[in-house]
Design goal:
The complex is a heterodimer of chains A (596) and B (75).
Chain A lengths: L6 E6 L4 E6 L2 H7 L2 H12 L13 E5 L13 E6 L6 E6 L3 H7 L4 E5 L6 E6 L2 E6 L8 H11 L5 E4 L2 H4 L7 E3 L3 E3 L4 H7 L2 E7 L9 H17 L1 H10 L4 H7 L21 H8 E5 L9 E6 L2 E4 L3 H8 L7 H14 L3 H16 L21 H10 L3 H5 L3 H7 L8 E2 L2 E2 L9 H9 L12 H6 L13 H18 L11 H12 L5 H21 L11 H5 L18 H8 L9 H6 L3
Parallel strand pairs in A: 1-6, 7-12
Antiparallel strand pairs in A: 1-2, 3-4, 3-6, 4-5, 7-8, 9-10, 9-12, 10-11, 13-14, 14-15, 16-17
Helix pairs in contact in A: 1-2, 2-19, 2-21, 7-8, 7-20, 11-12, 11-13, 12-14, 13-16, 17-19, 19-21, 19-23, 20-21
Chain B lengths: L1 E7 L10 E6 L5 H7 L9 E4 L2 E2 L11 E5 L6
Parallel strand pairs in B: 1-5
Antiparallel strand pairs in B: 1-2, 3-4, 3-5
The chains are: A alpha+beta (596), B mainly beta (75).
The structure holds iron/sulfur cluster.
């Protein structure tokens, strides 16, 4: 089958063995790759009730059919496993160049099973694959691990690694690649750490087979033109990156501030994309074959490196009440070094501040560090303590839900299914609240980005404070996103491309004849199998909800004043459109229709 | 006479002007204001009046805050 290498690598870490298996092409057709294929393989091979940090959980690194292929942004991979943080299916996506390199080496999927008796890393040079002792890199930061492996392997080798966060089983640990790209969410780094697996270094020399080079070139030209002509992908993201959203959300009064106690931030301008561009930006960076290039390189003093995204500016900035850009850049850098998810890390610090200010966390627990809303919090130090699991940082590294719960105040954790919600207050963006509540991995914005129609007006403008029609928009966005995540391209292309374009892309690379409707149906299938996994894992539809603060406490001031999220107006319609029962459980008929 | 505040963002910040207070002699719509400011309408992707997304046909009132954004996005 074109587009894929047809090969799965199965690594048993307990035994230290590596086997090659053939990719199941029938499954690839039904679930594409990445998020979809990984979830299907999890479902077939792992009991959803498994303890996520036990050797019985498995870790799937899955490319998509577009990964490594000559299409716009075709370089992404997914880490699929059961999340230790939420107990749901986890699938965390990352760009950079690593995913494409794995494809060049001739592999589609790597499955890690069991647990290595000693820390190891996996070295791949095409067919030559070996597990190596990791004693020289265990305990080191992501950049040191990356440098060590780059120096010891052929030029051009790409490195994926966990930092101290994953090693210390922080439930908000990320899997990092190319130093500063992250498969960030759901604690996938802790699963890797629990297996004593530090890194994967890969170098490939091949290119996947494609059916018709000329046809692909022609299609690419057309799609690149669409991406260039679109205001967001052709102008907005290249110029300002994602950071430009700070001011927009603040102007709408929907920029969560002080752990969602407020929804507008006085210091927004200081942490905005405009300020980042004016004072700190040195260059743009791009993932493999990406014409958009939304990545930012920034300089503070003598240090230069990857800069913060919008979500990070929010998490360490307004959510902690902090308007110090340099402190945020530093905290972002230390998240990358520790291998921690910036959203969950910043949001957990914000929850810790509220716990401290309300008297749950005592001064003597702080070991001399500050923990207050405003510019007084030592955020970078807290990030390091979370990564290394020191003092209060050890409790914070378990995420905001477990932290707040330990102090008897779980309602102060701004999470859905124990995953920290990102940077959009769902009281001011009603549909986004529905997608947070029904996301299969918990509080996440990239499972159905209704900010696009509700705030950016794309593909058409919806009233952000209205609940009407939000259920059908949520379903379409969720389904399309599930397919994009499974193809191996970047979700940001969807500002410019639609379901038909993705079908064209898939057809050109794989030699098939799918339609846009097929792409949406595959997304629907993926959404439902994730739902099934969660259900079998014991996650009930009662968890399709938002923190009480967002359902009951109206925004106190600003343009979204007086609003709560009216989830109950949207959820029943959403279940119905999904073909689920009133109880939120997929019906037999629906599962049959999707071939599940 | 009405007094309004106009806020500029991203590439719409010419000469680094972030915001200004304007006194309007006549009643204007948002579109007329944008024309008066000599910003081509197609350069504006998001126009907010007091934080509410609006078109070019909204009548501007005293004390309104008008926020102007070019096409931007992210996540
Ligand atoms: S748009 Fe940004 S995140 Fe997406 S592939 Fe391009 S550089 Fe990477």
């Amino acid at each position: 089958m074109f587009g894929y290498n047809g090969k799965v690598m199965r690594v048993n870490l307990t035994e230290g063995t590596i086997k090659t298996e053939e990719l199941n092409h029938e499954l690839a057709k039904k679930f594409l790759g990445g998020r979809g294929l990984g979830t299907k393989m999890m479902m077939d091979e792992v009991d959803p009730k498994v303890d996520p940090l036990s050797p019985e959980n498995k870790l799937f690194i899955v490319t998509g059919p577009m990964t490594g292929n000559p299409v716009a942004t075709g370089g992404r991979y997914m880490v699929v496993t059961k999340s230790p943080l939420s107990g749901t299916i986890a699938s965390s996506n990352s760009g950079g160049k690593w995913g494409a390199e794995l494809k060049f080496a001739g592999w589609d999927v790597i499955v890690f099973e069991g647990k290595s008796p000693e820390p190891v890393y996996l070295a791949i040079q095409d067919d030559k694959v070996e597990l190596m002792p990791a004693d020289k890199i265990w305990g080191t930061t992501v950049s040191n691990t990356t440098k060590y492996l780059e120096e010891n392997y052929p030029k051009g080798s790409k490195v994926l690694a966990i930092g101290p966060g994953g090693e210390n089983l922080s439930m908000i640990a990320a899997v990092m690649n190319d130093e500063d790209r992250a498969a960030g969410r759901s604690g996938v780094g802790a699963v890797m750490g629990s297996k004593n697996l530090k890194a994967i270094v890969v170098k490939g020399s091949g290119l996947p087979d494609v059916p018709d080079q000329d046809k692909i070139k022609e299609l690419n030209k057309k799609q690149l033109a669409k991406i260039k002509e679109n205001g967001v992908t052709g102008q907005g993201l290249p110029t300002y990156g994602t950071a430009v959203l700070v001011n927009i959300l603040n102007e709408l009064g929907s920029l969560p501030t002080n752990n969602f106690l407020k929804s507008a931030f006085q210091g927004a301008e200081e942490i905005s994309g405009e300020t980042l561009a004016e004072k700190y930006l040195t260059k743009r960076t791009a993932c493999y074959r990406c014409p958009i290039g939304c990545g930012r390189y920034v300089k503070v003093g003598d240090w230069e490196g990857g800069g913060p995204e919008y979500e990070t500016l929010w998490a360490f900035g307004s959510d902690c009440g902090l308007s110090d850009m340099e402190a945020i850049i530093k905290a972002n850098h230390w998240c990358n070094e520790m291998g921690l998810d910036t959203i969950s890390t910043g949001a957990t610090i914000a929850a810790a501040i509220e716990l401290h200010e309300k008297g749950y966390i005592k001064d003597e627990d702080l070991d001399g560090l500050k923990l207050e809303f405003g510019n007084n919090t030592d955020i970078a130090e807290w990030v390091k303590r979370m990564g290394y699991g020191q003092g209060l940082g050890k409790k914070m590294a378990m995420g905001s839900y477990r932290l707040a719960d330990e102090y008897g105040a779980p309602e102060l954790s701004m999470t859905v299914k124990k995953l920290e919600m990102p940077a959009y207050d769902p009281r001011g963006t009603q549909g986004q609240g529905l997608t947070y509540a029904t996301s299969n991995r918990g509080g996440c914005h990239v499972r159905g980005y209704l900010i696009s129609p509700e705030v950016l007006g794309l593909p058409e403008a919806l009233d952000r404070l209205d609940t009407k029609n939000k259920a059908s928009w949520a379903k379409i966005f969720q389904d399309l996103t599930a397919s994009i995540d499974s193809l191996g391209v970047c979700l940001f292309t969807s500002f410019a491309l639609g379901a038909d374009d993705y079908a064209d892309m898939y057809n050109a690379i794989c030699g098939t004849d799918l339609t846009g409707t097929d792409i949406l149906q595959i997304g629907d299938r993926i959404y439902n199998i994730e739902r099934q996994f969660n259900q079998l894992a014991g996650i009930t539809p009662a968890e399709d909800t938002l923190p009480k603060r967002l359902l009951e406490e109206p925004i106190a001031e600003g343009p979204s004043k007086g609003h709560v999220n009216r989830l109950s107006e949207m959820l029943p319609e959403y279940y119905e459109l999904r073909g689920w029962g009133k109880d939120g459980i997929p019906t037999e008929a629906k599962l049959k229709e999707l071939g599940l | 006479m009405i007094e309004i505040e106009v806020r500029y963002f991203a590439t719409l910040r010419k000469d680094n002007k972030k915001k200004e207070v304007l006194i309007l002699e006549d009643e204007l719509t948002t579109g007329e204001l944008v024309d008066d400011l000599q910003i081509p309408r197609e350069e504006i992707a998001i126009l907010l009046v007091n934080g509410i997304k609006s078109g070019f046909d909204v009548s501007i009132k005293d004390k309104d805050i008008i926020s102007l954004f070019p096409p931007v996005g992210g996540g």
